[in-house]
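From the shared-data thread, chain only:
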Amino acid sequence: RYGNFLFQELLPLAEATCGATISSDPTNRMVCGISSGGIAAFSAAWFQPDQCQRVLSHCGSFTDIWGGHNYPSLIRKTPRKPLKVFLQSGTNDANTPFGNWALANQTMASALEYAGYDYCFEFGVGGHSLNHGGSLFATSLRWLNN
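Structure, as tokens:
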């Protein structure tokens, strides 16, 4: 639903009301988020790669929230999609009854590697915040646009 809202409603509204011109080429579109926004970003591209093929996920919630823990298995079993993914997490990321964010992001990176995706995983020592991801932001944008 997030991808539908983003691509069918929000982007056309931005173009119409702000005079913005947004590329329709999915290789020129990137979606970004942190925590639940990180998994939402990945989901938008995963389910609609015809709309967006670049993902930047900081501390993505690929845990037992909204079925996020299912992505590594789906990535391994589904024919590869034309996505380029930048993941970031750290050893002190969240650890709750829903799962361990650091481990979940490591598992996502392993699945992306196994399935032959173009991906980058930056694993640091930080927690569930934008400190590490923010320090990598320019680097991650350059990597995703190459």
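The beta strands are 30-34, 54-58, 84-92, 95-96, 99-100, 118-127.
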